[in-house]
Structures are given as C-alpha cells and as structure tokens.
Write a structure and sequence with these properties.
UDP-N-acetylmuramoyl-L-alanine:D-glutamate ligase; nine-stranded mixed sheet; four-stranded mixed sheet; 35% helix; globular
C-alpha cells in the first residue's frame, strides 16, 4: 500500500485509549535575575497554558492525525478535571471518564527561554477503587467492539493494573483486536499478552533486566522482552539513535529523522498513537514504525506537549523521499 494513500485512511480509524489522564500545565516566562532569598532564578511569568497529557495526549495525537479517538480513565472532582473535560471536548475526543476521590493528576512545568526550569506534580498513585475499576471494565465490555484498536497508556498513576489488562485481553481475544501498550518501569509483569509494547531504552533495560549499552545488549533485551511478554512486537525508542522494531521474524533498526530536539515531552505518546493508527489502517509493522518515527521527529522539534498533523507528516515523509512530490 502506498504511504500517502495509507495516511488518508486514518480518518476512518477508531482507537480507544485507556490509561492515566494527566493535565499538563505550562507556566511561561523569562529569567533576568537570581533571587536574593535563595540561589534560584526568578521567573517573570508571561503566559500560562494547559494541555492534555498522558492517555489524553495519546488521544489528542490520534485526532490530530485525522483518526477518531475515545479516552477512558479517571479524573478528580476538581477544577483540573473540568479543564481536562473541556480540552477533550474542544478536540472532538469522545469521553468515558470516571470521577474519583483522588485529585486530577497535574504536571506543572515552568519554562523560561525555551528551557524547563522546574517541574512539580500533584497526583495520587494509589490503585483504583473496586467501584471505579468495575465502571471502566463494564464500559469496555459494552463499547470495545466499535473500535479498530486499543492503546493502553501506562503512566503508573493507578489506572493500569493486572485485573484491568486481564479483563481487556479477555474481551479482545475473540476478535484478535490489536492492543498496543506504552509501558512504565515496575509494571512489565502486567503486560503479558498485549500485541506490542513501546518502551524507551531505560524502560527496556529495566523490563528485561539487561543493561543496554551497545547493539548486542539491545538485541538481547528486545528479544527477551518479546519472549517474556509473548508480544507480536516490541518497539524500543532510542532517542537520537532512532528506534528498533523486534518481531518474531526480524529486527529492524530505524534511524532518527529529528533535525532539532527541543523537548521530548510527549514523544512516546506520539509514537504509540501514530504506530497504532497506521497499523489499524493497514500498514505493516515496519511501515507503522517508520511513520511513527517521522511523527516523533516532528514533535521533539517543538517546545511543550505537541502532536504531529497529516500535513507535517507528509512533508517529513516527502523530505525523506518516502512520499513522492506530485
């Protein structure tokens, strides 16, 4: 299938995103002096903005690329939860959110002169209550058949658990629905049976128990994860080295296409969103990884939680000679 034709098919693909919903707050400013109270910079605030993070940002990436996204997870009964609902609604993302007694997770970043000065988090990472978890599982049982693929976005904030994944895989097994998972250190024992995981180098090292220092250790770690988790594929993102796709048949190394790296925030969200959308549209694993690599190269070139668009993606693929100019 031609890549340009494939991108056009994104519009009809429906993806469900399950996981930890985060509100990303950015405080923008400039630094001209050091505080007389302590050796810290004084940031003169010029702007304040909110963006979708975590599972919500994965859904945002899907919609930005032309797909149809629904997101399910947990928010608090607070103003931050209201902001999340408003942002999701504004983006046209379908919502199946469950309110809980915990606060909405907020990551606040202070940015001065395009550099992050400090980040502070407000969150509750305890396991979900039985009532809330049952609500999510009941929603999956009732709604999953209408989606072409599922993404689990694990930020280790309490939503993703052994029971949730077990129930999800039980529901998706008859239809062999594609289930992609963005993992977190400490949770790899939960992921057995998903279709693909997309760890970065650090996560792959922890998950495999192998210190990845060179190509040999990378190959050992990827193959071990593939066997250990019984996945169809493992996609290890390697920063400036690109990414490596492991399947039962092959190992493919894909070099980075990023020209400038300003901010890696949310790059993992972009990779799993683009890969899953492309694969659900009919792309092979290798084609999906290549397209996701170009999408990641776009977002790391922007400050803040960003997303690729079809036009930007086509431009990047044209520059690489993958899509020919007309």
């Amino acid at each position: 299938m031609k890549i340009d034709s494939l991108l056009k098919l994104f519009k009809g693909i429906r993806i469900l995103v399950i996981g930890d919903i985060i509100l990303d707050r950015y405080i923008w400013g400039r630094v001209n002096r050091i505080s007389p109270e302590a050796p810290v910079p004084i940031v003169e605030v010029t702007n304040d903005s909110f963006l979708l993070g975590g599972a919500a940002n994965v859904a945002n990436n899907i919609v930005a690329l032309g797909g149809i996204a629904s997101v399910t997870g947990v928010i608090g009964r607070d103003r931050a939860g209201e902001v999340v609902r408003e942002l999701l609604s504004d983006k046209g993302i379908e919502i199946a959110l469950f309110e809980d007694s915990r606060p909405t997770t907020i990551k606040t970043r202070v940015i001065a002169h395009n550099q992050q000065v400090v980040r502070f988090d407000k969150e509750d990472r305890t396991t979900l209550s039985d009532k809330t978890l049952k609500g999510i599982i009941d929603y999956l049982k009732a709604s999953l058949k209408k989606f072409d693929a599922v993404i689990i976005s694990d930020y280790k904030k309490g939503v993703v658990s052994r029971r949730l994944i077990r129930e999800l895989l039980k529901i998706t097994k008859p239809s062999r629905k594609f289930v992609a998972l963005d993992p977190k250190v400490g949770h790899f024992h939960l992921y057995k049976g998903v279709s693909i995981i997309t760890p970065n180098l650090s996560e792959a090292s922890h998950g495999s128990g192998i210190d990845i220092t060179d190509e040999d250790s990378l190959l050992k770690a990827g193959k071990l994860l593939l066997k250990k988790l019984a996945c169809k594929a493992v996609l290890i993102t390697r920063g400036e080295e690109g990414m490596s796709l492991f399947t039962n048949d092959n190992v493919i190394h894909i070099p980075t296409v990023a020209r400038h790296v300003y901010d890696v925030t949310g790059a993992g969200d972009t990779v799993i969103a683009t890969f899953t959308l492309a694969h659900a549209a009919g792309a092979t694993m290798e084609e999906s990884a290549m397209i996701a690599n170009h999408a990641a190269g776009i977002v790391v070139g922007e400050v803040g939680t960003a997303s690729a668009t079809p036009d930007k993606l086509r431009q990047s693929l044209r520059l690489a000679g993958i899509i020919r100019r007309r």
